[in-house]
Write a structure and sequence with these properties.
- The structure holds two protein chains of two kinds.
- Chain A is built from nine helices and no strands.
- Chain A is mostly helical.
- In chain B, strands 6-7-8-3-9-10 form a six-stranded mixed β-sheet, with helices on both faces. A four-stranded antiparallel β-sheet of chain B has the order 2-1-4-5, with helices on one face.
- In chain B, strand 7, helix 6 and strand 8 form a beta-alpha-beta unit.
- The longest helix of chain B has 15 residues.
- Chain B is globular, with a radius of gyration of 20 Å.
- The chains are: A mainly alpha, B alpha/beta.
């Protein structure tokens, strides 16, 4: 139990140091750009593809239930609302945790095990500035853009499946979507991703920095980075969801809109 | 040497480069070093020997503040490391060179970028000046210019070690720390490294600490040899430093523990290890002290 508390404290100190180093020194292009490329550009295809499929899966799953109630024309509303509020952000975050988070933990873990992090420190260079800050900024800044991509592909996938295979009318599909999904829903989804991105980067880099020796240690760091970031994503999603829903109630005092 | 010329002239009144007082290191329940004291005057080469797991690497890392002492004090040129904040420690480390056991070159950078790393971090030299320094450092450690654009993984072990040495020399350090510089190299390459250690030392006023279990290296480069004994096998109360003196004294030493080490004879060690194992199995409390000590030394 005490170890857990100490562990949380350790991550907190690590996070504070990271944030401190963002402002302590000017960031260098040649340090930032490779990380940004790795995190953003190379993640784009997987995020786009999974987004497309999740949109189609949503269409498949909701169609039969909505048809039973004769509400299949409302399909657009439910698909797009779940996409921009929940699935797009969480999907982009999950892909980032799996693709980038575990790779970061493995890379930094290998650097720890082969004494490269010690070497950096022994040359008077700060490993957090060189290794963690670029990855943190990459995740923080690029995860919203990946989410936009996941949202877009999901909306596209959901529409294509509904229209082409389920025969939902174009006009009804989009009118209903427009009526039920507003900018707040979209922005709330994007807002959440900043927390997801920060969590992924900090948890994964921290795992890598505190990697146990040997190949086993590196493997465990990579696995733990994904598992812990994924759990954190879902926990954050729940609490941010509750908080943001309350906020929405303040702006829309007429109460939650009903699909039925 | 076109590196930023810092005159490192010293005289008798200079404080010793490294001064360690009653240093103890403990990781969790496991004590690695106990009550070590030593003084290393400028220009000397200290060789630390001892079997695997006796805390040599830990001692080396305590010397440049990579590991903080549990008890005791480490002073570099008269300044206690423990009182420095991260920023001051980073600045003082520019006066250190550290050659790691596995060279610890950055995989993602080329050899030239690796060697240039400390220069880019701590000097305002232009790109052309830095590339001149890198070129001359490569020459100094006997590496062809063609390796400059290669990644560390493309090089052999001996080449990586030499590139690591070039990187350690880049800022004209006052003190160079070598962690097992010849481990894993063939005898000829080992001797090349020994020669390079001697040559680095002939740079004006450079002080060196070499951690090794290679007696050939110890005899060749040492002014002073210090031998550590693993605490787990030391009777309580006995000092952990079982020898301190010149290579000549070492050869005339009659302590059986030292003779065994320098002559490379296991003696009764295997049966001791078996006894330990049997004892551990009886107590069934893994991991064994021997094992965990080893891991700590490697990390």
């Amino acid at each position: 139990m005490l170890d857990r508390v100490a562990g949380v404290g350790d991550v907190a100190i690590f996070s504070l140091k990271t944030v401190g180093w963002i402002f302590a020194r000017r960031q260098r292009r040649d340090v930032l750009l490779p990380s940004f490329y790795q995190i953003g550009v190379l993640s784009l295809p997987v995020v786009a593809l999974t987004g497309l499929f999740i949109g189609m899966v949503l269409a498949v799953q909701s169609y039969s239930q909505f048809r039973a109630m004769g509400l299949q024309t409302r399909l657009g509303a439910v698909i797009n609302l779940s996409l921009v509020r929940e699935l797009g952000p969480v999907l982009a975050a999950t892909m980032l945790a799996g693709r980038v988070g575990s790779a970061m933990a493995a890379e930094l873990g290998t650097m720890r095990v082969t004494e490269q992090i010690d070497a950096m420190e022994s040359m008077g260079a700060n490993p957090i500035y060189y290794l963690v800050v670029p990855r943190f900024l990459g995740c923080l800044i690029l995860i919203p853009t990946l989410t936009v991509m996941a949202d877009f592909m999901g909306v596209l996938g959901g529409y294509l499946y509904s229209h082409l295979l389920l025969g939902i009318d174009y006009h009804h599909y989009w009118t209903n979507s427009r009526e039920y999904v507003d900018a707040f829903d979209f922005l709330m989804g994007i807002f959440k991703t900043f927390f997801f991105g920060a969590a992924i980067a900090l948890v994964s880099c921290h795992r890598g920095f505190n990697c146990d020796p040997g190949a086993e240690g590196v493997g465990r760091a990579a696995t733990n980075a994904f598992v812990h970031s994924f759990m954190l994503i879902l926990v954050l999603d729940l609490f941010l969801g509750i908080g943001l829903d309350n906020l929405q109630d303040i702006f829309h005092p007429e109460g939650p809109r009903k699909l039925l | 040497m076109p590196a930023p010329a810092k005159a490192i002239r010293r005289d008798i009144s200079d404080p010793p480069v490294i001064e360690i007082q009653n240093l103890s290191m403990r990781f969790g329940d496991h004590q690695v070093l106990r009550d070590i004291s030593l003084v290393l005057p400028a220009g000397q080469t200290l060789v630390v020997i001892g079997e695997s797991g006796c805390g040599k690497t830990v001692l080396l890392k305590a010397m440049n503040g990579l590991l903080r002492p549990t008890l005791g004090e480490v002073r570099f040129e008269g300044i206690p490391l423990a009182r420095m904040n991260e920023h001051e420690l980073a600045r003082i480390r520019t006066r250190y060179g550290f050659v790691f056991q596995g060279a610890a070159l950055f995989d993602s950078l080329t050899i030239a970028d690796n060697i240039a790393f400390p220069l880019r971090e701590h000097t305002r030299l232009s790109a052309a000046e830095i590339s001149d320094i890198v070129e001359s450092l490569l020459g100094e450690v006997g590496l062809p210019q063609s390796v400059a654009t290669m990644k560390p993984m493309q090089l052999s072990g001996g080449m990586r070690k030499r590139a690591g040495l070039a990187r350690a020399l880049a800022l004209d350090p006052h003190l160079i720390l070598y962690d097992e510089p010849t481990t894993g190299l063939d005898p000829i390459m080992s001797d090349v490294i020994n020669e390079l250690i001697l040559r680095a030392r002939s740079r004006d006023g450079v002080t060196s600490v070499v951690v090794t279990h290679d007696m050939h290296t110890a005899r060749k480069v040492a002014d002073v040899i210090l031998m550590l004994y693993p605490l787990s096998r030391l009777p309580p109360g006995e000092p952990q430093v079982i020898f301190q003196g010149t290579p000549h004294d070492l050869d005339n030493c009659s302590d059986p523990r030292i003779r065994q080490f320098i002559e490379g004879q296991a003696g009764t060690r295997l049966s001791e290890l078996k006894d330990e194992q049997a004892r551990d199995q009886a107590q069934s409390t893994p991991p064994t002290p021997e094992h965990s000590q080893h891991t700590e030394d490697e990390t």
